[in-house]
Amino acid sequence: MTTVFIDGSAGTTGLRIRERLRVRDDLRLLTLPEDLRKDPASRRDAMRDADVTFLCLPDAAAREAVSLADGTNTRLIDTSTAHRTSPDWVYGFPELPGTREKLAGAERVANPGCHASGFIALVAPLVRTGLLRADAKLSCFSLTGYSGGGKAMIASYEAPERDVLLDAPRQYGLTQAHKHLPEMRLYAGLEIPPLFCPVVADFRCGMEVTVPLFADDLRGSVSDVRAVYADCYRGPVIRFDPDAAEAEGGFLSAGAFDGRDDLQVTVCGNAERLLLVARFDNLGKGASGAAIQNLNLLIGQDETAGLVL
Predict the structure, then answer these.
(1) Which of 56, 114, 140, 232 is catalytic?
(2) Model confidence at 228, in pLDDT bands (50, 70, 90)?
(3) Which residue in 259, 255, 263, 304 sits closest to 280, CA to CA?
(4) Residue 188 CB neighbours (<10 A)
(5) Is 205 a catalytic residue?
(6) Which of 137, 146, 262, 288 has the most other CB atoms within 10 Å of its CB?
(7) Whole-prediction pTM
(8) What is the dihedral of CA 77, 81, 84, 89, to 10 degrees?
(9) Confidence label for 176 from pLDDT (cuts 50, 70 and 90)
(10) Domains, the chain, with CATH or none
């Protein structure tokens, strides 16, 4: 039986991971008492006893936790931004070629960011197959539920008397320095980060990442794009659905995958202008679900074990 410790189990990502794992009979969860949850010595002891430790912490705290884990045999899955572009860590997006094999023997895994997961799912296969140039100058806009902002943002949106500005979608990342941009560029295979426009709206969970393209941006046709996705994304977690918009009457809801751990890729538009769209739960394949998928691959389990698909 695999022993698991969640360092930062009180945060939104940690809580979802705990919810998914506590019903599994192949795992044993280590839990610290509330008064010891932030105690370094107690955390280190838990890591020493754990086969796998999830780091569900802010970046600086995650770096400190890695130091605490030194000298232990625990394998780390870090859900923060701290190590996502580090060459010493495996980037935990199993759908990238060769990554499942790397994860099987990994000691240090960096869990992808939520917005980044959608962007990479859409762009990486097209760059890899030559349909998009590596020096393409892309744009991306992404709708997210407010749970992606953590406890403080959740509290502000769910407050009985909240700011009226929260009633409408709010764009952020306005300096074009969003923390997901380095991994978006690197793992999509691009030379230039995309122009990125994230938007948070008044729904708890869900994400819809869109990359618009002119057909002239492609070294191929719209049919070629669909064929690449159909070949890459047959499941079990990411699937290509060419009819997603038709199924919703010409709409695509950002909340369609709330509570789930899978991701849907679709292509909309026409022969001249395309919309590449990825939909998933920002706490599912965008965070906790992805972390559990990585755990499963680390310990040799079916990668879908414990996931809601």
Answers:
(1) 114
(2) very high
(3) 263
(4) 27
(5) no
(6) 288
(7) 0.97
(8) -40
(9) very high
(10) 2-112+287-298 (3.40.50.720), 114-282 (3.30.360.10)
